[in-house]
């Protein structure tokens, strides 16, 4: 019954996988999966590999793309249950997986096809295997932990933070300190690095584009206010977890149960330094809400231990927190709830608006492509969001191109030179801006009267949640490469 409950919680997000169109980032990572490689502009290749596999199994549709994060989240849930069960017992394990899966972070985030679910999955299994390796010393567990960590590093580069967490746990836990004089921890790091080598070589061959991009993101963010960005970071973490569960998590981190046990310290050192690092980093630049998410599985284990050994008041509070977390996720997924409460939130506040209207846009693009024929017509845009959605939802799923006319660099840079072979061809240009200033020099003629595609979500909003423009462009004549692109 215990494992049935764990698996049921891990599969709880399945009913929402097919809900709505792909969000722009999901369509973008699906684009990656069409070109399997050891690296991509923005991050490591793991999300593309998972999507490639699940699309092969479940089909090229919303469900097929989102099965990748759903399976990763199921494996995460099983791993957290194993950790909490070994450290605190089964009741703690049930609380830990419940804590983790009802948060918006996991319930919604675990169904969105980005690289974060894969990172969390491999992070958790690295900790599972490290805890076993430190308990019985088996080389097999050290090898497995290194493989899991290497795969995590191929998912997202913040996986590297497992190394300082482990070393702090070893150095500051007297019974584990002798491990620092043994080869196994260094073997773990060696295996982790070995799996990362192909991505490192790919980056070296591509002008270190991923590393340069990540360095750019760490310094970007526009006007900076240290206190404001720090407050935004704390607020974003509260909303990822939900307010009551965030307080429980904070208490469990400040007063961890059974602190005298070494595995508890491993959980603590694999969570607290990450949260503190990004809290301090927020004083330098804007920190995105998802940058610290690998701290939460360990925190959930500690929260499970705090709840299992506590009194009934703690558990009632946790139950209320879980109910609030579920309500928060429901409000995000179903705007009708807010409407029933008499609340009309701005369209920008509702993240699921990003998953509406793309099929309609794809149908309109296909209609215009036929009208602009019979000669070759390529589809392009000025940001990866529109290019990716057009590729997924236009009939035949054609290859699309980013003209980089002032937009930020992205994976589309890999195919930019293909545009040289399209000089003289007609094109459809998709954007959310009716201004032609940036693209008019690139074509012989651009029809100044675009097809306007309005996306409505009535009765939730009185105005369109998005307006897209499809421009008919004739005679592509000026290849600018990436000279006008912005960012790193």
Radius of gyration, whole Å: 24 Å
What is the count of structural domains?
A: 2
Number of helices: 20
Alpha carbon gap, first and last residue: 51 Å
Helix share, percent: 40-55%
- What structural class do the secondary elements suggest? alpha/beta
Largest sheet at a glance? 6 strands, mixed
What series of H and E elements makes up the topology? HHHHHHHHHHHHHHHHHHHEHEEEEE
Mean pLDDT: 91
**How many E-type strands?**
6
Task: Note the overall shape.
Answer: globular
User: Which segments are poorly predicted (pLDDT under 50) over 5 or more consecutive residues?
Assistant: none
What proportion of the residues form beta strands (DSSP E)?
A: 5-15%
Characterise the protein shown here.
With 488 residues, this protein is of the alpha/beta class. The chain folds into 2 domains: 2-333, no CATH class; 354-476. It has 20 helices and 6 strands. Strands 1, 2, 3, 4, 5 and 6 form a 6-stranded mixed β-sheet that branches. Strand 1, helix 20 and strand 2 (400-402) form a beta-alpha-beta unit. Helix 1 (2-10) runs antiparallel to helix 4 (62-87), helix 5 (90-102) packs across helix 16 (296-308) and helix 8 (139-153) packs parallel to helix 10. The radius of gyration is 24 Å and the shape is globular. It starts with a helix and ends in a 12-residue tail after the last strand.
Core attributes:
2 domains; single chain; 6-stranded mixed β-sheet; 488 residues; alpha/beta
